[in-house]
Amino acid sequence: MTNKKDGTKIIKVDTLARVEGEGGLYIKIKDNAVQEVRLKIFEPPRFFEAFLRDRDFREVPDITARICGICPVAYQMSSVHAMENALGVKVEGPLRELRRLLYCGEWIESHVLHIFMLHAPDFLGYEDAIKMAKDHGAIVERGLKLKKAGNDLMAKIGGREIHPINVRVGGFYKVFKKRELKEITEQLKWARDAALETVRWTAKLPFPEFEQDYEFVALRHPDEYPINEGRLVSSAGLDIDISQFNQHFEEEHVEHSNALHSVLKERGAYFVGPMARFNLNFDRLSPISQEAAKQAGLTKTCKNPFKSIIVRSVEVLYACDEALRILENYEMPDHPFIEIEPKAGTGHGCTEAPRGMLYHRYAIDDSGKVLDARIVPPTSQNQKTIENDLWHFVKKYLDLSDAELTWQCEQAIRNYDPCISCATHFLKLEMDRE
Amino acid sequence: MATPVLVIGIGNPFRSDDRAGLEVARRIKRSANDRLKVLEIAGNPLALLDIWKGYDEVLLVDAVSSKSKPGTFQIINAVKKTIPAGLFNTSTHNISVAEAIEMARNLNQLPKQMLVYGIEGKNFQFGEALSPQVNEAIEKVVHHILSHIH
């Protein structure tokens, strides 16, 4: 932080640590009033939407999986759902369950990485998880083992833990006999207990007092906690089919970010991710997860983003519980995939990535070639809300020491588990030619 | 009986010289036997803690970018010396190889003996070709490791 003679204070973090991707923070305070807040994203754009054009529809899930090393399943799932939607196919029964199982693996590994390695050090006053491990060895070890359960589940169903290769439009390349899943089932039983311990542990962390009125947006399904399907709903009454995404959401370019800011056309900033899912779908959590949430002191609506670490751990518990439910009822699908013939059409896919709702839309021609692609990742949707949080947080806590305020601003960004390299994948390049 | 020596080559196969560690592992694999196990790792460094569990001696090879002359290599005795934090972070955003080693140290999960070979890369852009200097360094490291073991 720098203090100038004219009473201006600048909080500047050139490169944010413990977030995925390259980003920075700039806050300007003058005469004890916040004047400017910028979450700067300088991770270079990667133009996925442009180079998906002209590719065969079958290649898309493997290409989009490369957008993120932490949440590749989310990109695969939103893209296969969009393709299946365009081609008029619905994947149901055991294949659908197997996809949900794979997705549980990703929620576990991604959330656990964030809880233990990236976010917890903020609360406990450590620079990073490595230093935290010195004093909290048993807890970090539990985190590592729990993360491994998620990774192993992804590796089992997806073929490998990073950028899985087993998902295809219409189903999977390979499916499993029930006995092949026995080992992972045992591992997940341990994981469910460890996840419950984790909820209890995160509930005891110290939380700054900070609540905001947000518009939460998440999927909602008639009977499930939202992972792979549902209508898009919000705490302000939005309730739409995902195909209406464009009518309600739009993306804006802002100068200080290589990622577009997504807003609700009518109301502006909104909030996606674990807290949005939890607040809009508490009644869809499994009994053990609801009970753990209550015991952790969470009410049905949590408005303190610092408590997202508890919500995330409730979702880890849910993902373990849900994975075990699927495994218990698992029957090997008769055929790994549904045969699909290409035809022209437009399809929408929306699933819940660990960090929040992830929307894909593709138009394909009658030979199955992609004509147009659109990908709206969760971090771009949360950017405005992160900036708003910083604005209000700094205003409220101006009397903190400079070091403490900078620290807590970084923590406030990590509340959203931002995945900056995902968020820059869709930037459109505009060129002026004369 | 002593456990086999584990050689781990780390790298991103699509980032030119960053593949150096993988290449070392690939060449050493030809000599693998009961006393020598070789693995190639192209992702999540945190998994290392699990991977070397049960091995007494581990040799780890990765490309580094430390402003030294490309094609030179350094050997760090990880049991005795902390790995500089910025040394290996060329291919991953969150937990680097150096951080994974330091994490293991703090959790008492380092193998009894561990040497880390860092090969100075020149080009970390997208691509699969190795710089000639790095290719030479790979041969030297392979030779060093094989003579260290035998």
Features:
heterodimer; A: alpha+beta; 3-stranded antiparallel β-sheet; 14 helices; 14 strands; globular; B: 150 residues; alpha/beta; Rossmann fold; 22% strand
Q: Describe the strand arrangement of the main beta sheet of chain B, using strand numbers.
A: 2-1-3-5-4
Shape of chain A: globular
Overall CATH architecture of chain B: 3-Layer(aba) Sandwich
Task: Give the termini separation of chain A.
Answer: 43 Å
Q: Please write the string of helix (H) and strand (E) elements of chain B.
A: EHEHEEHEH
Largest sheet data of chain A: 4 strands, antiparallel
Seen as an oligomer or otherwise, the chain set is heterodimer
- Uncertain runs of chain A: 425-434
Under CATH at level 1, the class of chain B stands as: Alpha Beta
Q: How much β-strand is present in the residues of chain A?
A: 15-25%
Number of helices of chain A: 14
- Portion in beta strands of chain B: 15-25%
Mean pLDDT of chain B: 89
Counting DSSP E segments of at least 2 residues, the number of strands of chain A comes to 14
Structural domain tally of chain A = 2
- What is the CATH architecture term of the largest domain in chain A? Orthogonal Bundle
Q: SS-based structural class of chain B?
A: alpha/beta
Helix content of chain A: 40-55%
- Integer count of domains of chain B: 1
Rg over C-alpha atoms of chain A, rounded to the nearest angstrom: 21 Å
How would you characterize this protein structure?
- The complex is a heterodimer of chains A (434) and B (150).
- Chain A has 434 residues and is of the alpha+beta class.
- Chain A has helices spanning 48-52, 60-64, 72-86, 93-124, 129-135, 137-158, 182-203, 245-248, 274-281, 287-295, 308-329, 378-396, 402-414, 420-423, and strands at 2-3, 8-13, 23-30, 33-41, 167-168, 171-172, 217-220, 231-234, 239-240, 249-252, 261-264, 345-353, 356-364, 370-376.
- Chain A has two domains: 2-41, no CATH class; 48-423, Cytochrome-c3 Hydrogenase, chain B.
- Chain A has 14 helices and 14 strands.
- Chain A has a four-stranded antiparallel sheet with strand order 1-2-3-4, covered by helices on one side. In chain A, strands 7-8-9 form a three-stranded antiparallel sheet, with helices on one face.
- In chain A, a hairpin with an 8-residue loop joins strand 10 and strand 11.
- The termini of chain A are far apart.
- In chain B, helix 1 (20-29) crosses helix 4.
- Chain B has one domain (5-149): Rossmann fold (3-Layer(aba) Sandwich), CATH 3.40.50.1450.
- Chain B has helices at 20-29, 48-51, 97-106, 132-149, and strands spanning 5-10, 36-41, 57-64, 73-77, 113-120.
- In chain B, strand 1 (5-10), helix 1 (20-29) and strand 2 form a beta-alpha-beta unit.
- The relative contact order of chain B is 0.25.
- Chain B contains four helices and five strands, in the order βαβαββαβα.
- The A-B interface holds A 18, 20-21, 69-70, 113, 117-118, 128-131, 133-134, 137, 140-141, 144, 147-148, 151, 161-162, 421 and B 43-44, 46-47, 49-50, 92-95, 99, 102-103, 106-108.
